[in-house]
Specification:
The complex is a heterodimer. By secondary structure, chain A is mostly helical. Chain A has one domain: Orthogonal Bundle (MetI-like fold). Chain A contains eleven helices and no strands. The longest helix of chain A has 38 residues. The radius of gyration of chain B is 18 Å and the shape is globular. By secondary structure, chain B is an alpha/beta fold. In chain B, a hairpin with a 2-residue loop joins strand 1 and strand 2. In chain B, the strands form two sheets. In chain B, strands 6-7-8-3-9-10 form a six-stranded mixed beta sheet, sandwiched between helices. A four-stranded antiparallel beta sheet of chain B has the order 2-1-4-5, covered by helices on one side. The longest helix of chain B is centred in the middle third of the chain and has 14 residues. Chain B has ten helices and ten strands. In chain B, helix 3 runs parallel beside helix 6 and helix 4 crosses helix 6. Classes of the chains: A mainly alpha, B alpha/beta.
Chain lengths: 285, 254
């Protein structure tokens, strides 16, 4: 066998191996989805979506769970969105490259890697105990905001960084201040990217159960939360609760709830992909 | 103010990026309503020098100057000078056309809007006047609400010039304004410079010797951070005094 034949063979071998590796992920996801859908799709109907939880599997619904999830989603977004974007703008546009700003940057990156249950414990100590909020929506949303804040800061910075230097120069040269440049040029041009990051961060928050359990969200909430000061549950907690029951019927309920949770996550990711796509089409530097 | 008074002046100017000295003891006086060209090989400091006139280097960490830059006899690095006020007086056009990702109209009136001018009539009048001055009005008058990014490179650069003119500066700095453009667009920019010098003081950095010869009244040759020679363009191109200048303009290096 000549050398070039050997090389071609190696090339081919890697291609096959690469395809195999790519498909492992896909196949696992497919098996998982098929399994869940077969198990749970029959259980999803209007009643399931609009019923309160119940001890009897056949009567139990997820109204309070998905209402809680929506509440958490909106509240976390409202809290983390302005904080994260402001911090990202500060670090990228204003902060001078000093030891302090380096230290801040490294630690924000570190924060993004902290396990979510730690944020739950922090939330428990800070919001539930010290601020005496109790296991309410606001406390849960605050804890999840802390969790997604580093992700939003990092993606905001990335989006801002993608705006070319020349645009800022153009604005400065016309007499604009830093804030005017950020507000009129940098933010509009990077908003799609920032929003994409925020939505992806939220879709992560939607799937979290651990930190909310720690701060004291309940598995059984017989009412729909009306204000941020109400007690609550969310879909992941409901799912966790149902899967730990011995009765087969609750597992079916869990599968059905998982489908709904996945739909919410896919929907959020879909919006993110759409926004990114539109952004790329709109602005070509 | 008579025409022969020097509009811009540098006195014993040194500039540093951290420890690196980019400009060494520059002394130069530039005439009002005339075109001065800065030429020299890459890295000779001509762009750095150009950017000191509207203090665009302020944003670079570690950049500092010593000495003075005078605009109409006033030191623009004095502590009481506001940079935004300075830049209303000293406009700038960059190497690569950099229109904002907004409409043509929004691009032209951006400088006015950030000054807080909201009156529609003023904005529209200024827009038309500036675009006419930049010889772009006839090409874009029917699509002012279209994105500026849809224009050709040459049109974009003239839009950037219109944008700079809209805030009524007296000086326009141009950093290789035609180097990213095709020959026809370049010719249009050069014609424009010729027209504009009736009303504005223009300083242009260029790598193109012919361009310097065509558009400028005076030429300054920079080398390794020093101002080697400064003279009337005709004089410099026909009988340069310094051998370095001669070598550069005859294309022996750079």
């Amino acid at each position: 066998m000549t050398n070039s034949e050997k090389n071609r063979l190696k090339d081919k071998a890697f291609q096959v191996f690469g395809i195999f590796c790519t498909f492992i992920g896909l196949v696992v996801l497919a098996i998982f989805l098929i399994d869940i859908v077969m198990e749970g799709i029959g259980r999803i109907d209007w009643d399931f979506l609009t019923s309160l939880p119940s001890r009897r599997a056949a009567r139990a619904g997820i109204l309070t769970a998905w209402a809680g999830t929506l509440w958490i989603l909106v509240l976390s977004a409202l809290i983390a969105f302005p904080l994260g974007i402001a911090a990202g703008i500060y670090l990228e546009e204003y902060a001078k490259k000093t030891k302090l700003s380096n230290f801040l940057e490294i630690n924000i990156a570190n924060l993004a890697g902290v396990p979510s249950i730690i944020y739950g414990l922090l939330g428990l100590e800070l919001f539930v105990r010290m601020m005496n909020l109790g296991g309410i929506l606001l406390a849960g949303a605050l804890a999840l905001s802390l969790l997604i804040l580093p992700i939003i800061i990092v993606t905001t910075r990335e989006a801002i960084k993608a705006v070319p230097r020349t645009i800022r120069d153009g604005s400065f040269a016309l007499g604009a201040s830093k804030w005017q440049t950020v507000w009129n040029q940098v933010l509009p041009a990077s908003f799609g990217g920032i929003l994409t990051g925020v939505i992806l961060a939220l879709s992560r928050a939607v799937g979290e159960a651990a930190p909310l359990i720690v701060i004291g969200a309940l598995a059984y909430v017989p009412f729909v939360p009306k204000t941020p000061m109400d007690e609550f549950t969310v879909l992941p907690i409901q799912i966790f609760n149902w899967t730990s029951r011995p009765q087969e019927a609750f597992l079916t309920n869990a599968a059905a709830a998982i489908i709904i949770l996945l739909l919410i996550t896919f929907l959020l990711n879909g919006i993110a992909v759409y926004l990114r796509h539109r952004q790329q089409k709109k602005i070509k530097w | 103010m008579t025409k022969r008074q020097s509009k811009l002046e540098a006195i014993n100017l040194d500039a540093y990026y951290g420890d690196f000295q980019a400009l060494k003891n520059i002394n130069i006086a530039m005439e009002e309503k005339a075109v001065t060209a800065f030429i020299g090989p890459s890295g000779c400091g001509k762009s750095t020098f150009l950017r000191t006139f509207n203090r665009m280097n302020d944003y670079i960490d570690g950049f500092r100057t010593e000495g003075q830059i005078l605009l109409d006899g006033r030191d623009i690095y004095a502590t009481d000078v506001r940079v935004d006020e300075l830049r209303k007086e000293v406009g700038m056009v960059f190497q690569k056309p950099n229109p904002f990702p907004k409409t043509i109209f929004e691009n032209v009136v951006y400088g006015l809007k950030i000054q807080g001018i909201k009156d529609k009539k003023t904005l529209q009048e200024t827009c038309e006047k500036s675009l006419q001055q930049a010889a772009l009005w006839n090409e874009v008058k029917d699509k002012l609400d279209k994105s500026a990014l849809a224009l050709s490179g040459g049109q974009q650069q003239r839009l950037c010039i219109a944008r700079a003119l809209a805030i009524q500066p007296s000086v326009i700095l141009m950093d290789e304004p035609a180097s990213a453009l095709d020959p026809i667009s370049t010719a249009k920019i050069e014609e424009l410079i010729y027209e504009l010098k009736k009303d504005y003081t223009i300083v242009i950095v260029t790598h193109n010797m012919q361009q310097a010869g065509r558009v400028s009244d005076h030429t300054a040759f920079f080398y390794m951070g020093e101002l080697v020679e400064y003279a009337k363009t005709k004089t410099m191109f026909t009988s340069p005094k310094d051998t370095r200048t001669q070598n550069y303009i005859t294309g022996r290096f750079g």
